Structure to design on (315 residues):
């Protein structure tokens, strides 16, 4: 089965079934990663002790968390008959288009009903910042930002690494991205322990993030997206999230970014995009931008598959 067919089938399964409600592999992986953290990251030393300043423990934990699963995946994908099914299931398990849609749509529905408290709770499931005192505008902005950023993290990044390195590559990307979401915070506890996971995530996301930013530009207001990407993307703390969200905000003609509370502290963040303040309906616009971008990716993959077939037939 061609990579394009596998991609379309996995995306179809994701949209039809969504993420597994029980026995989700990433939930199990998260529990395993937490066990490794308890073993290698001594709680009593987490607030500045010598061990807490040793990034080697985090590197060992990241390797133990990721490499065995990727090696097993690479071996099993070579097994006749079950290998193809496993490849489809792995890609289905690492993409999260439907999950992203469901979470963001729930925030919009709560805002549409005027249920601000519920909207805050719902958006709190999508972002790591504090949401208890958010206005409706900030809730909508946080949801739109999450849609844009996770369009890369939960969808396009995995598709890129699947195209490059097959199911093991996609699995490697998703597991590292999950570790970054767990350990990649600049807090006393994780500043050093999470360093390896965060840097690996930066490396793996470097090319996909820029392809995602370019696709957002193609799927929306092209000039504004490129302008915001070039002027604002470099100002963001994350070298990959900045270009993605700046381009997406420009493509949507929305003003996103700005300061927010993280772990009890106000963090100054650059403004992103241009145009109007976000409203509830802009969450749906962000989702549609991701969907148009996905169609572009699938279309390009189809052309590449067709070209490869033609070249093979000619040879």
């Amino acid at each position: 089965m061609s990579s394009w067919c596998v991609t379309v089938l996995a995306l179809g399964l994701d949209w039809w079934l969504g993420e597994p409600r029980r026995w989700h592999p990433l939930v199990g992986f998260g529990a395993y990663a937490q066990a490794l953290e308890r073993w290698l990251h001594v709680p009593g030393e987490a607030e500045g002790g010598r061990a807490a300043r040793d990034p080697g423990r985090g590197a060992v934990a990241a390797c133990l968390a990721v490499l065995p699963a990727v090696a097993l995946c690479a071996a099993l994908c070579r097994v006749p008959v079950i290998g193809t099914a496993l490849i489809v299931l792995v890609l289905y398990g690492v993409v999260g288009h439907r999950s992203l849609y469901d979470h963001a749509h729930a925030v919009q529905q709560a805002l549409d009903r005027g249920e601000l408290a519920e909207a805050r709770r719902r958006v709190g499931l999508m972002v790591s910042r504090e949401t208890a005192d958010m206005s409706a505008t900030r809730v909508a902005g946080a949801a739109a930002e999450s849609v844009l950023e996770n369009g890369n993290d939960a969808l396009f990044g995995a598709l890129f690494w699947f195209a490059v390195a097959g199911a093991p590559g996609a699995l490697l990307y998703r597991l590292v991205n999950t570790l970054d979401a767990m350990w990649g915070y600049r807090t006393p506890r994780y500043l050093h322990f999470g360093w390896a996971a965060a840097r690996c995530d930066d490396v793996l996301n470097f090319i996909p993030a820029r392809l995602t930013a370019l696709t957002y530009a193609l799927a929306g207001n092209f000039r504004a997206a490129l302008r915001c990407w070039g002027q604002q993307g470099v100002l963001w703390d994350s070298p990959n999230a900045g270009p993605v969200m700046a381009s997406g905000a420009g493509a949507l003609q929305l003003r996103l970014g700005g300061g927010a509370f993280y772990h009890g502290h106000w963090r100054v963040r650059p403004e992103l995009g241009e145009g109007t303040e976000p409203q509830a309906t802009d969450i749906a616009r962000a989702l549609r931008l991701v969907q148009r971008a996905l169609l572009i990716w699938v279309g390009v993959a189809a052309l590449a598959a067709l070209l490869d077939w033609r070249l093979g037939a000619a040879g």
